[in-house]
Backbone:
């Protein structure tokens, strides 16, 4: 499941970078690509909103489940789950688990 | 040009039904919802049975709409309930019910609707307030509070959604002959109408005209506005 979610995130980022809404320093988009926060994250808050909405919709399409990735707990964590592709995918897997319990 | 896709809440009867039929006549693909099934149908109309305050049901509905239609162009948050009584006689259960439907329901549909609009970077949301807000109408404290909240939501969401290409505005109707005012004594309605610049009951056509204006593509520079009918301000 995590691999599929990483692919959803990377596809979304690819589309966002084509429209100039996301830039990345690494040669290719990969699981370590920084997203939001810290010194390396390049997404602004609106870009993060768009990414999360697109990933939620991708999860809806692939797994037929509705999930909210940006609940109050996620937003208030000291180490944001949105810092890179990998942490976002981990967070999504966790949230899908909660949703389907 | 493909037909605009317009989602309207509370389409079983009253103004919601009128607006649905109004936009069907204009060639829109209309999606509606209500808690109980309507007794009317149309080949370009799709109905969902749900309570607008039910988050899971709403998310499922929007997921289904996205699969079937790809997105929406317009969202008209018509569903609403009123409570007309002196505050000293208003139970908290009524307060919660009115706030849930009018505020939570409107917020929920704005949030999910905007998610479906933002990939195309365009969309129009029309919310419903009431002239009872600027008139500070006695006997309607909870209804007025809920609609004042809708006005606040409208203005803030207009700013949050502007970068996504989505406008958010609201209509403030005067009393219209619907179930919403059926229980209000005639003298109360007369007193209210007397405070309008144009002292008459409103019509569904009056409401549709303002909605037409808000969802007209030429109105894409108009957002965060509340238009009251009848010359109230």
Residues:
């Amino acid at each position: 499941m995590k691999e599929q979610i990483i692919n959803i995130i990377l596809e979304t980022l690819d589309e966002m970078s084509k429209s100039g809404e996301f830039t990345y320093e690494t040669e290719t988009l990969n699981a370590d690509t920084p997203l939001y926060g810290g010194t390396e994250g390049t997404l602004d808050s609106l870009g993060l909103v768009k990414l999360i909405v697109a990933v939620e919709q991708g999860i809806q399409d692939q797994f037929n489940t509705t999930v909210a990735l940006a609940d109050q707990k996620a937003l208030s964590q000291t180490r944001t789950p949105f810092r890179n592709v990998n942490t976002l995918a981990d967070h999504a897997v966790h949230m899908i688990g909660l949703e389907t319990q | 040009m493909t037909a605009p896709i317009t989602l309207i809440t509370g389409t079983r009867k009253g103004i919601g039904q009128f607006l649905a039929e109004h936009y069907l006549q204009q060639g829109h693909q209309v999606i509606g919802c209500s808690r109980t099934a309507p007794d009317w149908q149309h080949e370009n109309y799709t109905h969902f049975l749900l309570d607008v305050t039910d988050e899971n049901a709403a998310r499922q509905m929007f997921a289904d709409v996205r699969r079937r239609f790809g997105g929406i162009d317009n969202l008209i948050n018509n569903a609403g309930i009123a409570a007309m009584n002196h505050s000293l006689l208003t139970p908290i259960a009524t307060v919660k019910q009115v706030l849930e439907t009018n505020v939570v329901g409107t917020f929920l549909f704005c949030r999910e609707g905007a998610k479906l609009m933002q990939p195309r970077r365009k969309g129009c949301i029309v919310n419903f307030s009431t002239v009872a807000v600027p008139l500070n109408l006695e006997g309607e404290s909870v209804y007025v509070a809920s609609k004042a909240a809708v006005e606040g939501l409208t203005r803030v969401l207009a700013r949050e959604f502007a970068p996504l290409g989505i406008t958010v505005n609201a209509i403030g109707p005067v009393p219209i002959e619907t179930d919403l005012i059926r229980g209000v004594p005639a003298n109360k309605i007369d007193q209210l109408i007397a405070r309008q610049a144009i002292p008459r009951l409103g019509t569904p056509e009056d409401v549709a005209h303002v909605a037409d204006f808000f969802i007209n593509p030429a109105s894409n520079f108009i957002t965060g506005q509340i238009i009251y009918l009848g010359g109230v301000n």
